[in-house]
Amino acid sequence: MNGRVPRRPPERFLVFGAPWITDAEIDEVVDSMRAAWLGTGPKVARFEEEFRAYQGAPHAAAVSSCTAALHLALLALGIGPGDEVITTPLTFCATVNAIIHSGATPVLADIDPVTLTIDPDAVEAAITPRTAALLPVHFAGRPYDVEAIARIAARHSLAVVEDCAHAVETEHRGGRAGSFGDAGCFSFYATKNLTTGEGGMVVSRSADLIADVKVRALHGLSADAWHRFSDDGYRHYEVVALGFKYNMMDLQAAIGLHQLRRIEQGWVRRQELWDGYIRDLADLPLRLPAPPEPDTRHGLHLFTVEVDPACGVARDEVLARMTREGIGVGVHYLSLTEHVYYRTAFGWSPEATPHATQAGRRTVSLPLSPRVTDADRADVVEALRRSLAPGGAAG
Fold this sequence. Notes:
single chain; alpha/beta; Aspartate Aminotransferase, domain 2; Aspartate Aminotransferase, domain 1; 3-stranded antiparallel beta sheet
């Protein structure tokens, strides 16, 4: 162990992405359980409407996950077999899986090495006669190059579906993430800035698109399930489309209602943590996140640093050392070209997306939850300093 003792003992392990849950969420969930309405019901409708209002979106549909949101948005736009959809290789597998499940073929365009978002020049180079849509990601909460992607989409008559899994609070020139394309898809997974445990949302300017999403999200039924069992009495339904079991539950929405009411408070706390990291990590052999672009608001979902190989410690060793120090960390993400399934199915290679490959092999994401205290942040900084030292952290 090199004579070193972990800064935080096991009972004080700092969980990465720990959700900020209060009594308000707990009481709301208990209220749902006492009301005996656990599935899709009035709280889903309330959460849907309050999230729509927060985003300033004309229309919204709550679903079971961002993966479901992406899948349904693509289907509602008519994307399917024979089509190609261009996306980034630096994203969670759900982004590309949604394309595959729609029946379309995913095509990767490399990232900008500074912003880690999709490179518009790489997008332009990837367009073929079969390209039907673009699926850019607001990575870590940073907006992608909105104007450039919009110009490309307009020039080639392409649909745009925004992956907003990291971007509830993200803004670009006064516009909110999810408002720049045909549909925006949000995640409320346990580690997200706004959580429902599992859950997602589609927003759009198009009432028809959202209506299609709502029908497909619940078996293709002609009416929302909770209306069928309301006080007005049982209502018959018809199956009008081939649908899925992608609906959100009231138990999930009960959490989200109170998460949404504290979303700005959480953003302010993450900004404080972010600024502290920028200040205290400046002298370490790391590439820190680039400053937000002018007239944008970073969603501050992930604080991701890149380990400089010149320090003599490999990224995976840093991950192991940080864990031994009692600090939970993440990797966001290995390039999709590194995964065996996609390499086999599509012939992708890491060399084809060099910027995403390099980022994926060097990045470490640090704890950024509002639950992280100033003392926790100091522990993270000191643990990282020790983990990057030639002698290493506690072994």
